[in-house]
Specification:
The chain is mainly α and 122 residues long. It has five helices and no strands.
């Protein structure tokens, strides 16, 4: 149960992180947003990132083996990075129709899966 809760919170966290880091590139298509200056865009992104932390911190606290969770610190970090890249790929394919997945992206994904395998191998 703690493993699934941790993964769910990490997915939510990384969804907000992706919006905070890259959403402004898509939001610029909106007329009102495109008129904002850099400081305003930074503050909006910072506000979105607050929600990232609201999910990331509990995910790490619940998931960390030192707190009774199922994952070591290294496993948590690798899990978070893989989730980040998967969320980013989904966001890119949905929000940026001009971006396409290529063979090298697929090969990279295989290496990520292998990284998770080796990190979680006892």
């Amino acid at each position: 149960m703690k493993a699934l809760l941790t993964i769910g919170l990490l997915i939510l966290s990384n969804t907000f992180m992706t919006l905070a880091w890259y959403g402004h590139l898509k939001f610029a298509e909106w007329k009102w947003f495109s008129k904002l200056g850099l400081i305003a865009v930074i503050l909006i992104s910072w506000g979105i990132a607050l929600f990232e932390y609201c999910f990331q911190v509990p995910a790490n606290k619940i998931g960390y083996s030192g707190n009774g969770g199922p994952f070591s610190l290294v496993q948590l970090k690798v899990l978070q990075e893989v989730i980040t890249l998967v969320v980013f790929m989904v966001f890119t394919l949905i929000a940026f129709k001009n971006e396409t997945l290529k063979l090298n992206h697929g090969i990279g994904a295989v290496f990520l899966i292998l990284a998770v395998y080796f990190i979680f191998k006892k």
